Amino acid sequence: MHAAVHDSIAFSFDPQQVADYLEANGLESTIVESGSSVAEYDVVVTFGHEETLFEAPWVHCIRAGIDEFPTDRYAETDTKLTHSPGIHATTIGETVAGMMLSFARRLHRYRDNQHENAWRVESYDAAFTLADETVCVVGLGTLGEGVALRANALGMDVVGVRRRPKPVSGVDSVFLPDDLSDAIADARFVVLCVPLTEDTEAMIGANEFQAMRDDAYLINVARGPVVDENALLDALESGDIAGAGLDAHTEEPLPADSPLWDKEEVILTPHVGALTDSYHEDVGALVVANAERIQRGESMFDRVA
């Protein structure tokens, strides 16, 4: 089997790394540039979508989110589409835990002070512990379960929101999307782990910020458009919420003139919550496993179209 490694992967890591992994595990690999024909390859491993990918029999997206991929068109063609939802639970879970700990223990503020050579102590009532605080995880797929597991280990009370009222390990209560306002009302942290769809676009807006506690923090490790950014800015400026940890943004890169840069109670990361030094191996292992399943005549896993 011959794999094309699309150069769009460079957004996350060096494409040569996954090409080398695939070669070491029995797949011939070639790095291809954006716009190149991929008709001669058995699979294209890519970060983003472009029209030429429909030439291939199989496309594998290295991300969990596939909102940029026209899944309906993939389903109508002979091109199979798979993605990578199962490899991000640990990285996203740890990113969220890190943000929550930073807010609770005020580490982000002390880091800011360090750059000013300033020995300043936060007010007595600023710091708190995560133990016994409530976190609401909106979206209890692989990413959300990874967040819930780590929050539970930190002694937090975990509630969640999902489309089906199915119990999830480590989650005390599960709410339906229609009950989102009730789910987030008592949470110190609201963590967004949902895919971007018509139903989830701008699901967090002015009404939801008003429903949240004024000492609550929003953390978005999903997609930027899941949050109404103007409503978020209003909520931060009015004190409707205490702060936000944002790994996903409406516009990426975040514009230099965005007011979010100057908010002391906002932690910004450039959509890197899932990155790790073994990302290329995790992606490669998924591709190799599915290639082996194809050769055995078995159905592919993580297929979305």
Description:
The chain is α/β, with parallel strands linked by helices. It folds into 2 domains: 2-87 and 276-295, 3-Layer(aba) Sandwich (Rossmann fold), CATH 3.40.50; 89-268, Rossmann fold. The protein is 30% helix and 16% strand. The strands form 2 sheets. A 7-stranded parallel beta sheet has the order 8-7-6-9-10-11-12. Strands 2-1-3-4-5 form a 5-stranded parallel beta sheet. Helix 1 packs across helix 9 (279-295) and helix 3 (89-105) crosses helix 5 (142-153). The mean pLDDT is 97.
Under CATH at level 1, the class of the largest domain stands as: Alpha Beta
> How many structural domains?
2
Indicate the proportion of strand residues. 15-25%
The helix tally amounts to 9
Give the overall shape, derived from the CA principal axes: globular
Secondary-structure content class: alpha/beta
Rg calculated over all Cα atoms? 21 Å
Per DSSP E runs of 2 or more residues, the count of β-strands stands at 12
CATH architecture of the largest domain: 3-Layer(aba) Sandwich
CATH superfamily heading of the largest domain: NAD(P)-binding Rossmann-like Domain
Mean pLDDT, to the nearest integer, reads: 97
Q: And the CATH topology of the largest domain?
A: Rossmann fold
The ordered string of helix (H) and strand (E) elements is: EHEEEHEHHEHEEHEHEHEEH
Strand order, largest beta sheet: 8-7-6-9-10-11-12
Assign a percent range to the helix content. Answer: 25-40%
Q: How would you describe this structure in keywords?
A:
5-stranded parallel beta sheet; alpha/beta; 12 strands; 7-stranded parallel beta sheet; EC 1.1.1.-; globular; 2 domains; Rossmann fold; about 300 residues; NAD(P)-bd_dom_sf; single chain
